[in-house]
Predict the 3D structure of the following.
Amino acid sequence: MTKTKPRKRHWLHEHSLSIVSVLLLLAWIVGYSCCSPQSRVGAFLGNSIADWSGSVVIILGTKFLYEIGSAESRPIKHRKSNRWLEMLQEHSLLIFLGVTGIGWLLLYLRMNPDDKWGQVVGNIVSEWLQMAGLVFLTKRLIERGSKESR
């Protein structure tokens, strides 16, 4: 029996989830900008923007950032010599969600919540709060039968 070399995966294959998620988010944004938010399609696209922006952040955030003790985060490979830098690295996912969430909240507070994009930004604020809450809660709480709680 001859052994075959494992086929090297193409860069596009290795990053296909990130690429497709970003393209879907862009499609929802373009579609929403062309629709009335009062239509069913417009309402769907506005909600999709918030949902898929959260998905993109979780996909890319858990790829590049860390949250020590969270099942969603990968383990830290290289420790920092400075304690402050290590703390920033260990909690970079939650810090990123907190800082960008505050940015979204400040933007939302300056907008009319009944305007076309005000509704979307309000949904994004809600999505960010939900993501940060889940990352924080999964550090200490468990759910029986959940893969993340093992």
